[in-house]
Amino acid sequence: MTSTRKPAITFIFITLLIDVIGLGIIIPIMPDLIIDLANLDPKASEAMGYASTMGAWLLFAYAFIQFLFAPVIGSLSDRYGRRPVLLGSLLGFTIDYLFLSFAPNLAWLFAWARGSRYYGCQLYNRWRLYSRY
């Protein structure tokens, strides 16, 4: 491996690590977060069912928007280069995570989850970029 490829691969892995840490933090607490944002009693029997249903819809919205915008992000990275688009997506994720941390209700959480997947389409492009090295 040449010395110019090692920093590039390090950059790719750091951006992937940031994305995966963000998902790894939210997945375990998602049911409690949904119950809290919906103002439900955590001890009620229907609370976990509601949280499961809303969590599934939230993950569906997240994946569906990624499916729609992956070609858009791919063409942007082909036109402007991978690195600027990767850095832009990291900036978008940072702003998105800040807004998600202050979400007052489930509607806001759904709206920002859809926006975050637009930036999350870069996850696929990062793996594709890694395969080039």
Task: List key phrases describing it.
0% strand; 133 residues; mainly alpha; single chain; elongated; 86% helix
Protein described:
It is a single chain. The chain is mainly α. The protein has one domain. Helix content is 86%, strand content 0%. The protein contains 5 helices and no strands. Helix 1 runs antiparallel to helix 2, helix 3 packs antiparallel against helix 4 and helix 3 runs antiparallel to helix 5. The chain is elongated, with a radius of gyration of 17 Å. It starts with a helix and ends with a helix.
Question: Oligomeric state of the chains?
Answer: single chain
Quickly give the structural class. mainly alpha
Q: Radius of gyration in whole Å, from Cα?
A: 17 Å
Number of helices: 5
Strand % is under 5%
Main β-sheet: number of strands, strand sense, barrel status? none
Poorly predicted ranges (pLDDT <50, ≥5 residues)?
A: none
Succession of helices and strands:
HHHHH
